[in-house]
Design goal:
The chain is of the alpha/beta class and 333 residues long. The protein folds into two domains: 155 residues, Quinone Oxidoreductase, Chain A, domain 1 (Alpha-Beta Complex); 150 residues, NAD(P)-binding Rossmann-like Domain (Rossmann fold), CATH 3.40.50.720. Helix content is 30%, strand content 26%. It is built from twelve helices and 16 strands. The strands form three sheets. Strands 3, 5, 6, 7, 8, 15 and 16 form a seven-stranded mixed sheet that branches. The protein has a six-stranded parallel sheet with strand order 11-10-9-12-13-14, sandwiched between helices. It has a three-stranded antiparallel sheet with strand order 2-1-4, with no helix packed on it. Helix 12 links the parallel strand 15 and strand 16. The longest helix is centred in the middle third of the chain and has 14 residues. The two termini are 14 Å apart. The model has no long low-confidence stretch (mean pLDDT 95).
Length: 333
């Protein structure tokens, strides 16, 4: 079968469509014929080797973690799904990829596709949906009336997280460019900072939480807009010691992550705020709950551009430009 793979880590990873063996199933897994798969920023980061010590891949490795498709085969212990079911899933951190003709999905990671969404729409959801859910509901425990800052509101994670935060009863601040102000307002953003005209840290204040979505010094600057005992959940780093402990990494990596996060931890302690790094985990039960929000149209998918399977590498290149309004999806069938 065909899959989008990378052959090595570094500056020349040789990303492209290649022939790979059709995967075989364990007893608790599904074989899904992939109809669509979305791409996420981490798909461009993995081949660089930046997460080589944390994420395990056998090279050449298939890229992608989001998918929607039809169950083609089920393992002997699978009870919740049958052949022919339309499903969507995230398989991040499983050592396998989704941008392929077929993908293996643990039963625990899958959910039935919302009936009102097509495969492209469904494939756009899992990573951004689970990330937003686990950050805002689990880490932050966002409550009605609280204020959360979600920068890059027109991006893939931003367009979903804004909608979820509003459903949770929060007030939302965000940043975006001039041309996307109306988009983020339509999703529910209350305070919108046009980053081409103003610096958010000079405009916003009194926030209870920050969802870190922008690399660089944005995380450090966001500390200044938080109340005491506020929370920052970063999706872009720096990685911290708690993350290393949770993944049972060795002492050397714990020390490395401690050094990487030393500055942000010092600043956070000074302002009496909490910092943590988050890798979203696959979770079919959470995805099913997200699916209900999509079926009742309380949250809507936002898709910027759809590429063919043959254009999968171009989809990654386009995402890397940082201009997408919502999600970028590869359509296989």
């Amino acid at each position: 079968m065909k899959a989008l793979t990378f052959k090595r880590y570094g500056k020349s990873p040789e990303i492209g469509l290649t022939d790979v063996p059709r995967p075989t199933l364990r007893a608790d897994e599904l074989l899904v014929q992939v109809h669509a798969a979305s791409v996420n920023p981490i798909d461009n980061m993995i081949p660089t080797g930046i997460f080589k010590a944390v994420l395990r891949f056998e090279l050449p490795a298939t890229l992608g973690s989001d998918l929607a498709g039809i169950v083609a085969e089920v393992g002997s212990r699978v009870t919740r799904f049958k052949v022919g079911d339309a499903v969507f899933a995230n398989i991040f951190d499983q050592g396998i990829g989704s941008i392929a003709e077929f993908a293996v999905v643990p039963e625990s990671a899958a959910a039935l596709k919302p009936a009102n969404l097509d495969f492209v729409q469904a494939a756009s959801i899992p990573m951004v949906g689970l990330t937003s859910w686990q950050a805002l509901k689990e880490r932050v425990n966002l409550q009605p009336g609280q204020k959360v800052f979600i920068p890059a509101g027109s991006g893939g994670i931003g367009t979903f997280a804004i909608q979820l935060a509003k459903l949770l009863g929060a007030k939302v601040g965000t940043t975006t460019s001039t041309g996307n102000v109306e988009l983020v307002r339509s999703l529910g953003a209350d305070e919108v900072v046009d980053y081409k005209k103003q610096a958010f840290e000079t405009v916003l204040s009194g926030y209870d939480a920050v969802l870190g979505t922008v690399r660089g010094d944005s995380i450090e600057k966001s500390i200044g807009i938080l109340k005491a005992r506020g929370k920052i959940v970063s999706l872009v780093g720096p990685l911290d010691v708690a993350f290393a402990r949770a993944r049972r990494l060795n002492l050397v990596l714990k020390l490395v992550f401690a050094l990487m996060s030393r500055k942000i931890m010092r600043l956070a302690k000074k302002r009496d705020v909490d910092y943590s790094f988050l890798f979203a985990r696959p979770d079919g039960e959470q995805l099913a709950q997200i699916g209900k929000l999509l079926e009742t149209q309380r949250i809507r998918p936002v898709i910027d551009k759809v590429f063919t399977f043959e254009q999968a590498k171009e989809a990654l290149d386009y995402l890397a430009l940082g201009r997408a309004k919502g999600k970028v999806v590869v359509k296989m069938r």
